[in-house]
UniProtKB/TrEMBL annotation:
InterPro entries linked to this entry: Carb_Metab_HTH_regulators, DeoR-like_C, DeoR_HTH, NagB/RpiA_transferase-like, Tscrpt_reg_HTH_DeoR_CS, WH-like_DNA-bd_sf, WH_DNA-bd_sf
UniProt xrefs under SMART domains: DeoRC, HTH_DEOR
Ranges of residues in domain HTH deoR-type: 8-63
Example GO molecular function: DNA-binding transcription factor activity
SUPFAM superfamilies, A to Z: NagB/RpiA/CoA transferase-like, Winged helix' DNA-binding domain
Keyword Membrane applies: no
Protein name stated in the entry: GntR family transcriptional regulator
Organism lineage: Bacteria, Pseudomonadati, Acidobacteriota, Terriglobia, Terriglobales
Pfam families (alphabetical): DeoRC, HTH_DeoR
Gene3D superfamilies, A to Z: 3.40.50.1360, Winged helix-like DNA-binding domain superfamily/Winged helix DNA-binding domain (1.10.10.10)
TM segment ranges: none
UniProtKB keywords: DNA-binding, Transcription, Transcription regulation
Length: 263
């Protein structure tokens, strides 16, 4: 009986992993890949939907698209952000999620890549999330097995981030085992940068209170410099980027002792 239960858990984890990888799955493909019957896969999908981990479709399943994104469906700049390097961001996020240990406290910046990270936490439980981002909290609101702390502050509106005195005060009181930083630019000489000065202020504090700093950035961000410094390059431990980044672009980071993952 226990063996059957373990097999069921493993199969459902594989379904969630496949969904995150492909963006959508069909019952037919899952039956073929997992060697399970149609009835079994349907039961798995129904159970995962009840746990708010996916949304059933005719003949398969897709990731849950929270209702609070609905007002942005016709916003071209919002849609551009979501669509830009979408597959690369999913791969980066999956690699990042593998770095999270049970019981860890994880700090997350705002952004599309860090949002993908929380969508990869379907098989992770017993962790604590710290963020200054409203949508991260909302997407995790159904996860009773994950503690979520939000800094509070003024809602800036650009990708749901909270900034200002309340946010910085909260950030000064919080400490994390690992922080994943989404950035607008990362340059060996100029460091990690973002567009908004108030956001930089909050993230500097969170970064300084984190034991391990991991940059999650698609190849378009490598070598770029934005307006405001988050932290110097020497402070980061690892970078996760995509395979399109060139050897010469990452060589200076590697020379500094920073581990670079190309996924």
């Amino acid at each position: 009986m226990a063996r059957g239960k373990d097999k069921q858990i493993q199969r459902r984890e594989q379904i969630l992993s496949r969904l995150q990888e492909a963006g959508e799955v069909t019952i037919e493909d899952l039956c073929s890949e997992l060697g399970a019957s149609v009835v079994t896969i349907r039961r798995d999908l129904d159970e995962l939907e009840q746990r708010a981990l996916l949304k059933r479709t005719r003949g398969g399943a897709m990731p849950i698209g929270p209702l609070f994104y609905e007002p942005f469906k016709k916003d071209s700049s919002f849609q551009d952000k979501i669509g830009s390097f979408a597959e690369e961001k999913r791969r980066i996020a999956r690699r990042a999620s593998e770095m999270i240990s049970p019981g860890a406290t994880v700090a997350l910046t705002g952004g599309t890549t860090t949002t993908e990270i929380i969508r990869c936490l379907n098989t992770v439980s017993g962790i604590t999330i710290i963020t200054n981002t409203v949508n991260v909290a909302m997407e995790l609101s159904s996860r009773k097995d994950i503690d979520v702390y939000v800094t509070g502050g003024h809602l800036r509106g650009n990708w749901f981030t909270l900034v200002g005195p309340l946010a910085t005060t909260s950030a000064s009181l919080l400490f994390a085992d690992i922080m994943f930083l989404g950035v607008d630019g990362i340059d060996v000489g100029q460091g990690l940068t973002c567009i908004h000065p108030q956001e930089a202020e909050v993230l500097k504090l969170l970064a300084s209170h984190s034991k391990r700093l991991v940059v999650v950035a698609d190849s378009s961000k490598i070598g770029n410099v934005s307006k405001w410094l988050l932290c110097p390059t020497r402070d980061i431990h690892e970078i996760i980027t995509d395979v399109a980044v060139k050897d010469e672009a990452i060589a200076p980071f590697v020379a500094m002792g920073i581990k670079v993952h190309r996924v």
